[in-house]
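During the reporting period the student researcher (J.K.) took over the structure-prediction task from the postdoctoral fellow and processed the backlog of single-chain submissions. One of the processed entries is reproduced below for the supervisory committee.
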Amino acid sequence: MIDQSMSVIGWLTLEWNDQRLRWTKAHYDDVDHIYATDSEVWKPELFIDNSVEDVSILQDDNLLFRVSETGRVDWGIPRIFVTTCTIDTTFYPFDTQECVIDVTSWAHTKDELELLHLREHVDVEDVAENGEWLYVTSRVESSVITETVANRMKRYSLLRFVIVLTRRCEYYVTNVILPVLITSFLIILVFILPVDSGEKVSYRSDSVTWPLAVLLTMIADSMPSTSNYVSILSVYLAYTLIMGVLAVGLSVLITRIHSQDPDKPVPVWLHKITRRLFARGACWKGYYCCWNKKEPPSTISHRTNGQRRDYPMYSLARDR
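J.K. obtained the following structure tokens:
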């Protein structure tokens, strides 16, 4: 996945007719087919256009060609096909990928050599089960490669073997999704933890923020370094990490306010933030925000050292 490549072990089966190789079997002791080597018969010069490791001509001197009396030549090439595969990580780990093996001619144009597919699908009779990917379907498409050389346009025949794979998500649900959701849920618990416990900030940073950062790093390391596709899970983790950092800042602010001297007045900027931001977001059914009312805000009384002080109550007022 990181290299954006697909490795497949398979056979590329080719058939073509060569009229020069026809014979009448009655004249040759009823021999209906023979085997020939690479140097004895003509073969098309083909290669894998999107190969990663090897872009050489498909050939093997140890493989024999089966030639029938009608001039039909059968040739099967066993090979490890390592091709490029653009990975779409948008819905990772619930993603489905389409990987392609492109077969085209090395030197023959479409007028000289045309590639036709024998089947509509890839033969998967011998497919072995994979622990990470599940085979869904496949298809074979005929296409044309156009190339302009010296003001002349050349067209080459192309066969595209498209293989559709879907990821087995059971492993990722138990090892990625559940830890991410559980760790994200722990963010809201930091506001329930009492300030007097002394663990408010350490709980938030050690138990929530760092695990989210580690999970984000692990997911990023398992995906290709490309900006063509961005995983929704990575975006969710990034925003959750940002919210966790904000929660740490709020926890520090709450702890600092809690440890202040009761006789010290609350700063004006904190009054404004609480009244205009937090109080607005804390309004719920049965309550109203005081700035929506025409009457002046009510006051709360606080007695310190035998002296009474009145403070405006800017947060919430109970609707009687």
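The committee noted the following: The chain has three domains: 5-168, 170-259, 265-320.
J.K. will present the remaining backlog at the next meeting.
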